[in-house]
Amino acid sequence: MSNILSDPFRQIIAKSIVETVKPKTYAECGCYHGASMNYWNQILPPDCQIVGCDNREETIQECKAHVPRAILVNCDSREWLQNDDLPQPIVFYLDTDWTVPAVKDQEIKIILDRWKNVTIVANSVNYEDHKLFGSEWKPFSVAKIFELFGHCCDQFIVPKYKAPILENGYVIIHRGDVKIPFDEHIFGDLKTC
Prior knowledge:
The structure is a single chain. The chain is of the alpha/beta class. 32% of the residues lie in helices and 25% in strands. The chain has helices at 8-21, 35-43, 57-66, 77-83, 101-114, 142-149; strands at 25-29, 49-54, 71-74, 90-95, 118-125, 155-159, 168-175, 187-192. α2 (35-43) links the parallel β1 and β2. The chain starts with 7 loop residues before the first helix and ends with a strand. The model is unreliable at 126-138 and 162-167 (pLDDT under 50).
């Protein structure tokens, strides 16, 4: 199975978040085929609950085959976020590659409105690469995400790395009692809000 987190930089970032935050819940909006969830499952502690949603039943079933302990729901992510009560601290993984920016903005807003001890990890291919996927595909803007949500978090981190195929935009929005440590060679911009 292709794993979007197979890049070493992403692995270091994910492990740093798990070790620091010690999440009680890992939640994925748009779990798709389960590649990202499968990686996180390998590094999360056994007592961390794994939950997710996707709006297609076939991808839910495929994801469940890769991560049997996951609790998965077939529904719209915004509906799921409004109704699901999750133990904190929570790590949310939002795969933004195939989602319109307005939906991602709404997801982040719901998360920050509902939970105080959260880490949001959102990834997206850079805007320059969107032509590879067609005119309908429009990734989110890191600058816009910071403008909208920077004031709601303790740390806003933009890691720097080159993915194997495409240069990716990547952002971590963190709010909680602990700070995520960062290495300047791995993390690019760090804004403390």
